[in-house]
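Hi Y.,

Following your request, here is the sequence exactly as I used it, all 428 residues.
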Amino acid sequence: MKNNKKLFGGLLIFAVIAILAACTKEEYTYPPQKSYTVDFDTNTTISELKALYQGSAIQIDTDLVISGTVISDDSQGNFYEKLVIQDSTGGIDIEINSSDLFVKYPLGSLVYVKCKDLILENYKGRGVLQLRFNSNGSSLPIPAVAFPKIIFRVDGGVPIVPKVKKIHELTENDINTFIRLEGVEFSVADTAKNLSEPVSGTTSAFERTIEDFYQNTAVLRTSSYATFIGTPVPNGNGKMDVVYSVFGSTKQLYINSPSDIDMNGERISRTYVLNELFTTSLSPFTANSVSGTASWYKKNYNGKDFANITGYNQGANEDWLISPALDLSTFSNAYISFNYAANYVSTWEDLTLMISTDYTGTGNPNDATWQSLSFTHTDGASWTFISSGPVDIRSFTGQTNVHFAFKYTCGTSGAATWEIDAVSVVVQ
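Below is the corresponding structure, written out as tokens. Let me know if you'd prefer a different format.
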């Protein structure tokens, strides 16, 4: 009996050694990568497809096929029942009545989409074109049973490199594309919050304001069903990679995960080199009347102080309200902002914001070289003050003699009134 135990023990040790030896000699064989192929090709671009939309929903009645790279990821719940794809010409939102799309169409996948019989529309007028399913004339998300016959993953997918843009540079062409915003931060009020909150009544997503040095803003919109809703809003400055969208006139940003936000730098510090409310006079601005009897003057109305000019009943006029010389030589960022009201405006060419680096500070301003600057326009028929928005003058930093001016002109009839307040120049 003892001899049998010894023999069994020896055989067991030999078997274990043999198994271990086999494990060291043979490597694990991974299953082959799945190949995704189709027997058709694309025949139009996303931008060409979107150009078919002319203000009302259309059903696509030709065999159009687009391709694009997946830039949305629903694995963490911030995207739901949709694919956002992008090619070199633009991006589009595809509504699908199915979740966990990341399993079949992970981030960076290349997909082909058969568009025939789908509906292209600006869903609910929100400003974002979508591809949706046509169900007896009604627009619906593509049913789960149908989308495998419409959307095909193919080989060759490479993740999209985000395009670097500033908030104010975002346009309609950037909707549903992957964007990197640099030098941005969350508003101070939002840094005490999380990226989102649990569902509250009918509210299932929450917005946090993003801003840049020039005080341009957009909102980061995060679903209450995202797995990262408890993530604190960063309190620094940096960059974020987002899928860009809109809701009406509001710029909306969506992230796939918190790792798309990198804000560990110092928050923006702004310095004012000019901040004028015109409480006592036009100084330090100088009124310069080139022609006509009208002129800029300081006015108070209902307790509000502002610079004012009108050519009403005063013939043809040309009048300038010119800033003092600004030394921007030590700064890399700068912008102008002001509040204003304008009424009886027939053309905005009569009310312009100008800037110069060779004006001497005296004499006819037309003897210097001036460049016009764009600012936010009203309808020109209101006494309500609005913000000009930040006017970027970064290209004039490094200069020691920068003047800007409000130039007013009018003819013998139809003269506008222009009121200016809270003029500031902010630098960094």
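The first helix runs from residue 2 to 25.

Thanks again,
Q.
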